[in-house]
TrEMBL record:
Residues annotated as transmembrane: none
One Gene Ontology CC term in the entry: membrane
PROSITE patterns, per database record: FE_B12_PBP
Family indicated by similarity: Belongs to the bacterial solute-binding protein 8 family.
Gene behind this protein: isdE
GO MF terms, alphabetically ordered: heme binding; metal ion binding
Cofactor: heme b
Species: Senegalimassilia faecalis
Protein known as: High-affinity heme uptake system protein IsdE
Signal peptide annotation: 1-23
Domain of life per record: Bacteria
Record-level GO BP terms: cellular response to iron ion; heme transport
């Protein structure tokens, strides 16, 4: 038995995003221009979504309240509250034609928006591929096809070069741990951090699950004999990494892992391996390359 208490089922559910497609906006009460045409009045409820809107050259009427950097063009806009719990009164007062957020929150927020008769759209930000599929859908929806196509082309070109750089290299098996202060869970390839490992050529030892995160005991983790252990944080990265350091130093079970014996345990930078896909995925993949393949990677 392990000494560390794992995250309970409710915490796993809170971290897990439903595998749902892009949900579309159907505004029942459009806010119109003087000439009678419908105004495009958009609200972005997460920094990742706001960054996508900026890349697509979309104007917004509101953004989430966040300590993370917001694109400069949106810095002076009204704030509608936290990504997980926007202020519905403020949202409604801005007369949005569409509120756009990550689909990890669709089950919680879609009923809330329906309750105030506000249209909404949810983007798949659980993977880089999902992000670019969402970008293409937004380009079609908001008349930004050219901008979306350019972004997708950049992604395709980068990934072609990256895949060529790791072609033929042995694919290591990887255990990805997602930490919260005091506890941790396993991240599958369905999580954003896990999807980056998969893009980089790593083989997740918990591949095949339909969940983003799993509660697993350390005995089962050890039995899967990962070549590499990667540790990342859901939030509060300084506290989480201190927790991981203490856990690996004081819980004797870890010394039996081959990855620990061989010194192949790495902490991932929080700004590159968060919960939602962002445009800094090239930096994240470059960070992973020496971890997975050695310094010559």
């Amino acid at each position: 038995m392990t000494r560390r208490r794992f995250v309970g089922g409710l915490a796993v559910a809170a971290l897990s995003a439903a595998a749902l497609p892009l949900a579309g906006c159907v505004d029942q009460h459009p806010y119109r221009n003087a000439d009678g045409t419908e105004q495009q009045r958009l609200i972005a409820t997460s920094p990742a979504v706001a960054t996508i809107c900026d890349k697509l050259d979309l104007d917004l009427v509101g953004v989430c309240s966040s300590s993370r950097d917001m694109p400069e063009r949106y810095a002076q806009l009204p704030q509608v509250g936290s990504p997980m719990s926007p202020d519905l009164e403020v949202v409604k007062s801005l007369h949005p034609s569409c509120v756009i957020g990550p689909n990890s929150l669709i089950d919680d927020l879609r009923p809330e928006y329906a309750g105030i008769a506000v249209a909404c759209m949810f983007l798949d930000l659980r993977s880089v591929e999902g992000m670019y599929a969402s970008i293409s859908a937004m380009g079609a929806k908001f008349d930004r096809r050219e901008q979306a196509a350019a972004l997708v082309s950049e992604y395709d070109a980068f990934m072609a070069d990256y895949r060529a750089s790791i072609d033929g290299k042995p694919q290591p098996s990887v255990l990805v741990l997602m930490g919260l202060p005091g506890s941790y869970i396993v991240a599958t390839e369905n999580s954003y951090a896990g999807s980056l490992v998969a893009l980089a050529g790593g083989q997740n030892v918990y591949a095949g699950s339909d969940q983003e995160f799993l509660n697993v005991n350390t005995e089962d983790m050890q039995a899967r004999d990962p070549d590499i252990i990667l540790r990342t944080a859901h939030a509060l990265p300084d506290q989480v990494m201190a927790m991981f350091a203490d856990e690996f130093a004081t819980n004797d079970v870890w010394k039996h892992f081959r990855a620990v014996k061989e010194g192949r345990v790495y902490d991932l930078p929080y700004d590159q391996f968060g919960m939602s896909a962002t445009f800094n995925y090239p930096d994240a993949l470059q960070t992973l390359q020496p971890m997975l393949y050695g310094e010559e990677g």
